[in-house]
TrEMBL record:
Signal peptide: none
InterPro entries linked to this entry: AAA+_ATPase, ABC_SmlMolc_Importer, ABC_transporter-like_ATP-bd, ABC_transporter-like_CS, Mo/tungstate-bd_C_term_dom, P-loop_NTPase, Transp-assoc_OB_typ2
GO biological processes: putrescine transport
PANTHER family: SPERMIDINE/PUTRESCINE IMPORT ATP-BINDING PROTEIN POTA, SPERMIDINE_PUTRESCINE IMPORT ATP-BINDING PROTEIN POTA
One of the Pfam families matching this protein, by short name: TOBE_2
Domain ABC transporter: 16-246
Keyword annotations: ATP-binding, Nucleotide-binding, Transport
GO CC, alphabetical: ATP-binding cassette (ABC) transporter complex
Source organism, top-level taxon: Bacteria
GO molecular function terms noted in the UniProt entry: ATP binding; ATP hydrolysis activity; transmembrane transporter activity
Name of the protein in its database record: Polyamine ABC transporter ATP-binding protein
Gene3D superfamilies registered for this protein in UniProt: 2.40.50.100, P-loop containing nucleotide triphosphate hydrolases
PROSITE patterns assigned: ABC_TRANSPORTER_1 (PS00211), ABC_TRANSPORTER_2 (PS50893)
Amino acid sequence: MTGPATTGPATADEIVRIEGLTKTYGAVRAVDDVSLSIPRGAFLTLLGASGSGKTTILMSIAGFVQPSAGRIVVAGRDITHVPANKRGLGMVFQGYALFPHMSVGDNVGFPLRVRGGKRAVDRDRVAQALALVQMDHLIDRMPDALSGGQQQRVALARALVFNPAILLLDEPLSALDKKLRADLQWELKELHHKIGTTFIYVTHDQDEALSMSDNIVILRDGRIEQSGAPGTLYHRPASRFVADFLGKSNFIPGTAAPDPSGGITVTTRGGQLLSKALADDEAAPAGPCLMALRPENITVTHTPLEGHNTVEGTITGVSFFGADHQIMIETPALGPVTARSHALRGAVAPDTGARVCVNWRPGDWRAVADR
């Protein structure tokens, strides 16, 4: 697996370096002093809500947006002011952007023709690119005879046909239905593994980012909130925003004090004492703190579990999600808490009004910055 995106000194395997990138539109800072290093061969996702700056960063790399400040370096070459058509980057758009009057083969071969390729060689490369996305049998079809998923595969083949070192993907699956989107997510991940091209992917879909990426950069208001491997961001969020944006979390305010075991004790606003074991990379908070607890780290039982933090509560609502139940529980010590329980193997039947115990291990919650 490739290393995480960093903002430190350049490394030998770095293919993209962004330094102090800023883009303003009048008084609005769409991107605000972003610096980022992307390793060669990474599948890096820029993740954020609408207006977070992710697409502006991607379009700046592509050359369709001119930065107000900062620079972009690709493979040691400063491309900040290089025209888009001279950058040699592959691009896949959300709306496919296929030429309706051209066949699948002609669409895929278009980047080769504008580069002055040789016809016989081009035919072979078009066939190879289409085979990569399992579309070579439809080489003579017209775009209007293809499904949305097929059109997106053709757009992907067109972006790869000239073997770019970097492929930029701007929310390419957002127009597809849920099942097809999940299928193509897997195919994209497998394709990346097969060809080794650096993928820079933009999405607002958290599940998509978590399932596909080597590394994720979470953006907020034009700035990087946190970056790293998916598992690191999910299990070790630095802030309330990240913990809440990637999945769901319960947030428990309290007061932290050192514990003889080497962890901390958190006193909740309801006066209950709870234990917290610290991870190796986790600083011990002192005084007022905010703890993040994932719903899936909670076990709902009829009686307290030994070695766990336990608070009592009453089930106030249940939602069914196929394999899981989402259980809403009102607790005197913590207020409302959301738990996630396996629908078939849960310890208790999730009946509204039932009195239950909410349990989690001391290492299964994390101190986060309240921002």
